């Protein structure tokens, strides 16, 4: 259900307006396609359509596709009337046979295509120039031709394994099996136009997306400026910018001299009497002209990607064009087509010259006339005179200095004399003899410092001692968010020993815990929890970690009318739902069982389990949720 277009293979039509530039984003499992989509959406304000989410929406509630799926595959796919269809059960039944799979595709594909056409038409009407689409199985479904360009998200294999094990809660063997079910990312990378390495942290990926964002916007603007309005009987290859006539119509090669092509077959008969049947040489010339034209378009696109060729140190660019040409006129009416692929690659890089073969300087341009040559000779002559004059001046200065030094030495008895003190001695003064032994230094002056005043630093606090403040402690100020800081009425700091240096807690005016932090021996924060309270009694706990204060996850606790937590949800650092837990309590309010539902990155329910026993419940919640002991107990 990953192919969002109808079997006709046409791009969604936008009517008489130019459709947006379409960018497909794909990648193998656990490479982080949705991360790139979120960066484009949240940081660059771009439109991102997730085709998987469209499928999920259609199966989540009553609609035409929803009712047809239940009618063909069974009403037991839902646990409650009008509830969401269990995609795990549907997947098991739909992929049981080729007939069942074809039936599901016949139901879903037209509806998904309608949604996409509606989106593209809407954004075309609004004048949007670019739309991004997340399509996980883009290449498997053969959909590259439907997009103007395709981005492929890749990641290191070890990183993918770790992500998949953590996200889907599977062992290494199962993670490897899940990865092997899809096309390898090496193959996907070869079929794509742009690669994004998401093996590192989110900021590195965001920097790469920002680097790609400017050029793709420029290409989208060129597409909007150059794309002609579609007219009846004409079609254009939106993916590569080369115009291709619709199937069934003969193609005329572009004429280099602007003259119309010869009509008739050369025997005096008109085209009405006998249709033209070009021979092999004519078809060969025509196809070569198409390829030459496509190569020119590709070269212009590659040059646009290269940018400043003279200033760059190393830059590569490529453009790929695909042409489908109708061959009916060459085969006597038989419906055939010829596929042409043109790939243009360009690179510009600095290349150091060989030390023993230096590049000779470029010779000066020849003079335009005799006057210019004479002027050049005069300039050279004056430059030579100036240089000789400078050498004569320097020689005169050296001789003058030597003469002065000679006279000075002669007047003082000859020889070389170094003057240390040229102040004349006073009359009747005796010369000072140098001391015969080292002079003892004077005794140091001892100043009474008075009572000892230690520096103004916080006094040492024993481990376990608690201090209270009305303002955020100085060492914690940089790690506390502005929105949190204004909510805190009282701060408490408990100092520890060893690696755990201090714990910081902030409470609001109602004595509710708003922020909790722990610091290491270098006074750097190891993690913090930020609590938000809602009117319905729900509590949201956000976790931030490390010196970068990076958001890593969220737990939300829902409470009943009696104030007990009866439901909990946990989200990843990308705000994707991971767990939904329903808590079963006994008569005194102690949690005794859990009903757990797990979700994958696309929002699919992948597993449902039950946890029994107070100890097992406590262990499960502590490992997967934040601060459950603080908010989840009676």
What can you tell me about this protein's structure?
This protein is of the alpha+beta class and about 625 residues long. The protein has 3 domains: about 1-230, 3-Layer(aba) Sandwich (Rossmann fold); about 280-350, no CATH class; about 465-630, Lipocalin (Beta Barrel). It has helices at about 35-45, 50-60, 65-75, 85-95, 100-125, 155-170, 170-180, 185-190, 200-225, 280-305, 370-410, 480-485, 615-625, 630, and strands at about 20-25, 50, 130-135, 150-155, 195, 315-325, 335-350, 465-470, 490-495, 500-505, 515-520, 525-535, 540-545, 550-560, 565-570, 575-585, 590-600, 605-610. It has an 11-stranded antiparallel β-sheet, covered by helices on one side. A hairpin with a 5-residue loop joins strand 14 and strand 15 (about 565-570). The radius of gyration is 40 Å and the shape is flat. The protein starts with 20 loop residues before the first strand and ends with a helix.
Short description:
An eleven-stranded antiparallel beta sheet has the order 8-9-10-11-12-13-14-15-16-17-18, with helices on one face. A five-stranded parallel beta sheet has the order 2-3-1-4-5, sandwiched between helices. Strands 6-7 form a two-stranded antiparallel sheet. It is flat and about 110 Å long.
Q: What is the second-level CATH architecture of the largest domain?
A: 3-Layer(aba) Sandwich
What general form does the structure show?
flat
Alpha carbon gyration radius: 40 Å
- The number of helices is 14
Poorly predicted ranges = 1-15, 230-278, 353-364, 412-427, 434-439, 452-460
Strand order of the largest sheet: 8-9-10-11-12-13-14-15-16-17-18
Q: Beta fraction of the residues?
A: 15-25%
Number of domains: 3
Fraction of helical residues: 25-40%
| Category by helix and strand content | alpha+beta
Termini separation comes to 45 Å
* Count of extended strands: 18
Say which CATH homologous superfamily of the largest domain is assigned: P-loop containing nucleotide triphosphate hydrolases
The average pLDDT value, as a whole number, equals 74
CATH topology of the largest domain: Rossmann fold
CATH class of the largest domain, anyone? Alpha Beta
């Amino acid at each position: 259900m990953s192919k969002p277009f109808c079997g006709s293979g046409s791009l969604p039509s936008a009517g008489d307006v130019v459709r947006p530039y379409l960018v497909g984003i794909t990648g193998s499992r656990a490479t982080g396609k949705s991360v790139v989509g979120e960066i484009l959406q949240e940081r660059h304000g771009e439109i991102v359509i997730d085709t998987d989410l469209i499928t999920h929406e259609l199966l989540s509630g009553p609609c035409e596709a929803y009712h047809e799926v239940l009618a063909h595959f069974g009403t037991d796919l839902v646990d409650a009337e009008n509830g969401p269809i269990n995609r795990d059960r549907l997947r098991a039944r739909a992929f049981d046979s080729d007939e069942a799979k074809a039936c599901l595709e016949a139901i879903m594909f037209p509806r998904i295509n309608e949604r996409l056409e509606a989106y593209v038409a809407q954004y075309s009407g609004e004048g949007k120039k670019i739309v991004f689409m997340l399509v996980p199985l883009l290449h498997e479904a053969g959909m590259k031709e439907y997009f103007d360009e395709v981005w492929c998200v890749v990641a290191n294999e070890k990183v993918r394994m770790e992500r998949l094990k953590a996200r889907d809660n599977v062992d290494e063997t199962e993670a490897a099996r899940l990865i092997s079910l899809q096309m390898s990312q090496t193959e996907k990378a070869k079929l794509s136009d742009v690669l994004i390495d998401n093996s590192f942290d989110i900021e590195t990926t965001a920097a790469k997306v920002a680097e790609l964002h400017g050029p793709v916007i420029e290409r989208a603007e060129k597409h909007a400026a150059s794309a002609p309005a579609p007219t009846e009987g004409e079609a254009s290859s939106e993916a590569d910018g080369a115009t291709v006539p619709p199937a069934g119509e003969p193609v005329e090669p572009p004429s280099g001299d602007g003259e119309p092509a010869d009509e008739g077959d050369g025997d005096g008969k008109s085209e009405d009497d006998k249709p033209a049947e070009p021979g092999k040489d004519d078809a060969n010339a025509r196809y070569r002209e198409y390829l030459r034209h496509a190569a020119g378009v590709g070269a212009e696109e590659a040059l646009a990607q290269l940018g400043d060729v003279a200033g760059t140190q190393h830059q590569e660019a490529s453009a790929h064009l695909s042409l489908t040409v109708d061959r009916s006129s060459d085969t006597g009416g038989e419906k055939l087509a010829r596929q042409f692929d043109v790939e243009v690659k360009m690179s510009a890089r600095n290349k150091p010259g060989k030390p023993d073969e230096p590049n000779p300087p470029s010779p000066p341009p020849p003079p335009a006339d005799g006057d210019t040559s004479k002027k050049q000779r005069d300039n050279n002559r004056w430059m030579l005179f100036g240089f000789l004059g400078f050498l004569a001046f320097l020689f005169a200065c050296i001789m003058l200095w030597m003469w002065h030094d000679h006279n000075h030495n002669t007047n003082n008895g000859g020889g070389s004399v170094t003057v240390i003190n040229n102040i004349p001695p006073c009359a009747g003064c005796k010369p000072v003899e140098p001391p015969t032994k080292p002079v003892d230094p004077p005794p140091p002056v001892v100043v009474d410092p008075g009572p000892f005043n230690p520096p103004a630093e916080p006094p040492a606090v024993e481990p376990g001692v608690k201090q209270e403040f009305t303002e955020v402690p100085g060492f914690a100020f940089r790690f506390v968010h502005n929105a949190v800081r204004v909510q805190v009425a009282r701060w408490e700091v408990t100092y520890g020993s060893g690696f755990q240096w201090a714990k910081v807690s902030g409470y609001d005016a109602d004595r509710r815990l708003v922020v909790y932090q722990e610091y290491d021996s270098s006074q750097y924060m190891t993690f913090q929890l930020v609590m938000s309270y809602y009117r319905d009694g729900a509590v949201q706990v956000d976790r931030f970690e490390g010196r970068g204060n990076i958001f890593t996850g969220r737990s939300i606790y829902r409470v009943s009318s009696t104030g007990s937590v009866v439901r909990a949800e946990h989200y990843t650092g990308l705000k994707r739902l991971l767990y939904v837990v329903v808590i079963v309590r006994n008569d005194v309010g102690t949690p005794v069982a859990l009903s757990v539902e797990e979700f994958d990155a696309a929002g699919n329910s992948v597993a449902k389990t039950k946890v029994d026993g107070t100890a097992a419940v406590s262990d499960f919640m502590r490992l997967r949720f934040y601060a459950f002991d603080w908010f989840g107990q009676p």
